[in-house]
């Protein structure tokens, strides 16, 4: 089965580069490109790609608004959006997360991580570049000092949440905690249900915001 991808970036050179990377994987194909946010939303709604790869900074509508319109709360049939960002734009990523993004990839992260992010999004999972996880979510912790409400999670669920907040994959979390991947997935489902969150990206943000991390 081929995963259909939309690429939205205002720079033609970046779009071409992303297309080449994506289509180097035999299971991925780019079905549309967009040079601005309005084009991205129109193409995504028309074509219903499996994954939308969206730049943060675009004309007419920026990536935050595109994400909200395609994947945000209240969208009847949300699409899966992976946001592309750079270090100096980290402050915008939290807005994209709240808008429904299921992944964050730095533009200089390399082809392998980009492909992994697209495949993870298509599989219903989420991937955050570890550098973004630590840099962004530590910033969130510093911005909200003293927030430490009662933790509704069990001890094991808390351990899984901390692993996710450090950017660990399900396999890496399983290896660290000496449990199976299926057990990690079961805990993640329970964590999301308890916290009322939609994916591991929101779980990671919750952990850092609410004082679970060092």
TrEMBL record:
SMART domains for the chain: HTH_LUXR (SM00421), REC (SM00448)
PROSITE patterns: HTH_LUXR_2, RESPONSE_REGULATORY
Keywords associated with the record: DNA-binding, Phosphoprotein, Transcription, Transcription regulation
InterPro entries named in the record: CheY-like_superfamily, NreC/VraR/RcsB-like_REC, Sig_transdc_resp-reg_C-effctor, Sig_transdc_resp-reg_receiver, Tscrpt_reg_LuxR_C, WalR-like
SUPFAM superfamilies associated with the record: C-terminal effector domain of the bipartite response regulators, CheY-like
Pfam families: GerE, Response_reg
Modified residues (4-aspartylphosphate): 55
Keyword Repressor found: no
Domain annotation Response regulatory: ranges: 4-122
Domain HTH luxR-type: 146-211
Domain of life: Bacteria
Full protein name: Response regulator transcription factor
Source species: Nocardiopsis changdeensis
């Amino acid at each position: 089965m081929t995963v259909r991808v939309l690429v939205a970036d205002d720079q033609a050179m970046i779009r071409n580069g992303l297309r080449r990377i994506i289509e180097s994987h035999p299971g991925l194909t780019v079905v549309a490109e967009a040079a601005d946010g309005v084009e991205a939303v129109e193409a995504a709604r028309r074509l219903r790609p499996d994954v939308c790869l969206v730049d943060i900074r675009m004309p007419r509508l920026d990536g935050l608004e595109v994400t909200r319109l395609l994947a945000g709360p209240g969208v009847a049939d949300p699409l899966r959006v992976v946001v592309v960002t750079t270090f100096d734009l980290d402050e915008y990523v939290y807005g994209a997360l709240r808008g429904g993004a299921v992944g964050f990839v730095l533009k200089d992260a390399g082809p392998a991580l980009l492909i992994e992010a697209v495949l993870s999004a298509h599989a219903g999972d989420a991937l955050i570049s570890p550098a973004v996880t630590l840099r962004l979510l530590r910033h969130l912790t510093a911005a909200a000092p003293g927030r430490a409400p009662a933790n509704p999670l069990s001890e094991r669920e808390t351990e899984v949440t901390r692993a996710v907040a450090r950017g660990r994959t399900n396999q890496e979390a399983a290896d660290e905690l000496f449990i199976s991947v299926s057990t990690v997935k079961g805990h993640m489902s329970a964590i999301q249900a308890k916290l009322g969150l939609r994916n591991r990206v929101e779980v990671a943000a919750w952990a850092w915001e609410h004082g679970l991390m060092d």
